[in-house]
Amino acid sequence: MSEQLDEGFNQARAQVRAALAAMGNGDPEPYMACWARSDDITLFGAWGTIERGHERLMATFRWVGSRFKSGGLVPEDVIVHQSGDVAYTVGFERGEVVVDDGSRAPMLIRVTHVYRRIDGAWWLVHRHGDHPPQDPRKTKG
What we know:
This protein is an alpha+beta fold. 26% of the residues lie in helices and 41% in strands.
């Protein structure tokens, strides 16, 4: 990450990092506050949800938050890029979490976040997350 990143973008990434820790403890509100209030924001969620529009995403994040009982997810940004008013991160979220009525277990999610600078502030506008499948090159056939 040698490129110069806008300080506001770095602050937005820090806000997302803190929000994901809260989400893992069942509080979706900080993560919801990271999103642009727009009808063109999108979510391709790790639990299969596909949503478009602010109200639908907020309802989905409330549902996701209700599933987490304790723990936290920590972002590991592998790629971070900013160009003008658009930026993205590609990486992973890792943590030990309790989901639904289960026991504490590791969770790994591959995540791409897309950010857009709107009126001088950086907001999330897209998330694509999934649970990585097993790499078929690493299995014995």
